[in-house]
Automatic annotation (TrEMBL):
Chain coiled-coil ranges: none
Transmembrane as UniProt keyword: yes
InterPro entries: MetI-like (IPR000515), MetI-like_sf (IPR035906)
Electron transport among keywords: no
Stretch forming the signal peptide: none
UniProt protein name: L-arabinose transport system permease protein AraQ
Amino acid sequence: MNFLRKYWLNAVAVVVSAVVFLVPFVFIILTAVKDKQEAALLDFAWPTGFHLWDNIVEVITTRNWMLVTAFVNSTILTVVSVTLLVIFAAMVGFVLQRRKTKWNGLINFLILAGLMMPPAVVPTIWLLQGIGLFGKLHGLILIEVAYGLSFSIILYRAFISTIPRELDEAAIIDGARPLDVFFRVILPLLWPVTVTNIVVQSVAIFNDFTNPLYYLPGNANATVQLTLYNFQSQYNTAYNLLFTNILLITIPPLLVFLFFNRQIVAGMTAGAVKG
């Protein structure tokens, strides 16, 4: 009884979390294994037959293997964008934390503004059209980097504040140049927050729906989230194929979170309390 009184709040939190996260996932799986008629009922009834493999094959081969193309596009978009985010954010966070100038206040304001201000879609499209990057994958990469840079800089700056300045000074005394200090001394120490940034930004960019919809039109440029349009229309929706598609594009981010859960928490809290 004392045990229940002590941990009842934790038990309630676990139950609520299970309902919020597991019930929708179970519904996705149940619908994905049904045929078209049973899936159209949108209920939790046990299927009379399992058609998961047939649904997977149809989802992958639909519209000339569009899902495969989408996975390739999303992988390239995610890897390149996250790589640029890690390099740029780490360098900016290092400079802001180590060098105090009269411009730091303005730079901090712009970083916070990047977090708070909503993106302007139409002016961004005009800009991309003007420089010839609208509808191109590398144009969307720049968009993803711009949208995620502020959050990444704040993460790195908080973590760098916990690294003693004496390491920088010792490297400079030994003859290291500024870039050597960053890449050989500081960057290897940023591994915990780098893992956090990679996981968080990878999941966000891989699951991004609105930016590819606005800035990357065309079937050849489709990302995984846009393939959901393949199985729904104004008058007819193949729910079995739609939820199979959802299941396939949900597995990669889910695995990332399961394997790197502890690193995400450690990196997010690093630098929160400076000794």
